[in-house]
Design brief:
Elements lengths: L5 E7 L4 E7 L7 E5 L11 H14 L9 E8 L10 E2 L2 H9 L8 H14 L5 E5 L9 H4 L5 H7 L8 H14 L8 E7 L3 E7 L2 E5 L21 H9 L4 H10 L2 H6 L4 H9 L3 H25 L4 E5 H6 L1 H8 L11 H5 L6 E2 L8 E4 L4 H13 L2
Parallel strand pairs: 1-4, 4-6, 7-10, 10-12
Antiparallel strand pairs: 1-2, 2-3, 5-6, 7-8, 8-9, 11-12
Helix pairs in contact: 1-3, 10-11, 11-13
Bound molecules: adenosine-5'-diphosphate (ADP), acetylphosphate and magnesium ion.
The site of magnesium ion (MG) has 2 residues, from loops.
Amino acid sequence: MTAATRVLVLNSGSSSVKYQLLDMADGSRPASGVVERIGEEGGAADHAEALRQVARDLDGQGLGLDSPRLAAVGHRVVHGGTRFTGPTLITDEVVEEIEKLVPLAPLHNPANITGIKVARRLRPDLPQVAVFDTAFHATIPEAAARYAIDAATADRYGIRRYGFHGTSHAYVSRATAALLGREPADANVIVLHLGNGASASAVRGGVCVDTSMGLTPLEGLVMGTRSGDVDPAVVFHLERVAGMRTDEIDALLNKRSGLLGLCGANDMREIGRRMGEGDAAARLAFDVYVHRLRRYVGAFTAVLGRVDAIAFTAGVGENSAAVRAAALRDLEGLGIALDPVHNAVRASGARLVSTAASRVAVAVVPTDEEFEIARDTYALASA
Ligand SMILES: Nc1ncnc2c1ncn2[C@@H]1O[C@H](COP(=O)(O)OP(=O)(O)O)[C@@H](O)[C@H]1O
Ligand SMILES: CC(=O)OP(=O)(O)O
Ligand SMILES: [Mg+2]
């Protein structure tokens, strides 16, 4: 009999399900894919339908969930609240707890729960592990995790900074240390995860000490469709003056803001194209995006005191030389000097894009949330 060394990773997002099958014995990835545009015309109707499609895809390749080589299923779960600060073996009770966190991540946790339920129904005998976006941020000190609001109210309702994209920040900060030839314990890194959702984190010696996302994945950087930081009074103002309901404001800030709200496009490629044609709205969207990014680079430089590296990752971070260049322009005073030639090169692996003289290394490091989830899952399932 062949040993069960494979882990199926399900990464259910708000509008997509990504999956990967990883073999932990030899590092191979026998299958991967994505079902996109869930709930949109021409896409899967909902997450349950998307997951059935994933199961069919795997079956079609002879790699179905019934495979005896499967050791475990690893699920990305976005919000773990205060209870889940590490990878967790899924039980009925764990599912109930994740369900209680839905109000804190309404775009994400329901999709994660659907994935868990479908996979458990198909393979009730297999260990299934939840790997939380929030876990890596559990080390953030109180001074950075606390909001300055009435303490009793905050405690009663669990209002604090949780942070997200933690598996990416963990993986990329480690990979950046490796690129510098250092142990994670010897590297202070600012990680800029710029995907459709975007967040920054400050990692000191392998331990996260601050991050830009907060109670929910809405705070911080400008994102594809999310506003990031706004004065909280914007919400009261819209309620009182514009007569908008809470759920309308929620949808406005989460789904119709960010780059999309500023210029009608949430894809940085399209924004780049339109800027090339002299489109003023696209230019403004880019400038607002970059300005916010620079603020966080400055803030996290002060949080860390000594910065060894700044790492760009995820769709925009890995691919947009223009965003990287604009984000770090004229920061020689902070010891940051991007090399324009290295920065412009299109390549796939982790690489340095700073000059030899730059005190702070600047790196482009492809993220690998699926690897990180599989590693955590396999460790727990085979313990
Ligand atoms: N070649 C590119 N140039 C600039 N931006 C890109 C490029 N490729 C992808 N992107 C950006 O990456 C975003 C998606 O990033 P990704 O990390 O895949 O997001 P998510 O995991 O949140 O869906 C796209 O919306 C697009 O703006
Ligand atoms: C937490 C979060 O924002 O995730 P994503 O970027 O996948 O939307
Ligand atoms: Mg992502």
